[in-house]
Amino acid sequence: MRAVVWSRRALLELTHAIDYLAQRNLAAAQRIELRILETTDKLAKRPIGRPGKQPGTYEKLVTGAPYLIVYALTDGAGGGQVQIIRLFHTAQDQG
User: Fold this and answer.
1) What is the pLDDT of residue 93?
2) Gene3D superfamilies this protein is in (predicted)?
3) Distance (Å, whole) CA 28 – CA 30
4) Half-sphere exposure (CA, 13 Å, Cβ side) for 57?
5) Parallel, antiparallel, or unpaired for β 50-51 and 3-6?
6) Whole-angstrom Cα distance, residue 18 to residue 46?
7) What is the maximum alpha-carbon separation in the chain?
8) Per-residue pLDDT tens for 68-94?
9) Nearest by Cα to 21 from 13, 11, 84
10) Under 8 Å between Cβ of 58 and 52
């Protein structure tokens, strides 16, 4: 199984998204955060996503939440890593 490693930028995007949601609906924010984290955990076991817009990246939609995880895979000891690069709301410009 690969280790999941979040970039600083992706962690900030997660924090901002959850903080924004929590101001409006705490229960919804908790559900969305759980779904995002469950998705990244699944990527550690089975990294199946579509090829990303940038070379060497992949994208995975979060089931039941309007978020897209952009990640890269590395090989190495212990199975390598899933590097979470970005987290986008699906309505957000990804440029």
Assistant:
1) 66
2) RelE-like
3) 5
4) 15
5) unpaired
6) 25
7) 42
8) 999 999 887 777 899 999 999 988 666
9) 13
10) yes
Mean pLDDT of the chain: 92
Q: Is the pLDDT confidence value at 21 over 70?
A: yes
The domain limits of the chain are: 3-88
pTM score, two decimals?
0.90
Q: What is the DSSP letter of 80?
A: -
When the candidates are 3.30.2310.20, 3.40.50.10190, 3.40.50.2300, 3.40.50.300, the CATH number that belongs to 3-88 is 3.30.2310.20
- The two three-digit tokens of residue 78, written as one number: 């212990």
Cβ contacts of 48 within 8 Å, gap of 6 or more: 60
**What single-letter amino acid sits at 85?**
I
For position 47, what pLDDT does the model report?
85
Closest CA to 69 of 31, 36, 30: 36
CA dihedral sign of residues 22, 28, 30, 34:
negative
